[in-house]
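Field notebook, page 134. I keep forgetting to write these up properly, so this time I am using the form the group agreed on. The chain and the ligand, zinc ion, are recorded exactly as supplied. Prediction of the bound pose follows.
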Amino acid sequence: MSDYKVKKTDEEWRSQLDPTQYQVTRHAATERPFTGKYWNQTADGVYRCVCCGEPLFDSDTKFDAGCGWPSYFQPIDEGAIEREMDHSHGMVRVEVKCRHCGAHLGHVFDDGPAPTGQRYCINSAALDFDERKD
Ligand SMILES: [Zn+2]
């Protein structure tokens, strides 16, 4: 077990989150593509961890990957993200988790756009959005 700053019991997470958010973030479920809140959102702002509120992704790095999940080419801060090898479902993928609370966010792939070449494929249910107003 990693040593997360934000620790809650299973019961606490279950009461804080809605059922989809709970299954995705605490049990590494994947929401169905094109069903989440944010896959086609283009508003300007910051995407936070739905569990602990940590800022994870900025709309400036969001792009349309055509996959039905919100996709970003980099996190706001590499230190806010944890990567772990995932061998589930007969695939080898790199899982992306929140470094502060261990929430499952999604996966990262090496087929993203410049400048990073990375594609963070994230579940909408793992995110909260703060719109930037000027
Ligand atoms: Zn978190």
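OBSERVATIONS:
- The mean pLDDT is 96.
- The chain has one domain: 31-131.
FOLLOW-UP: compare against the apo run.
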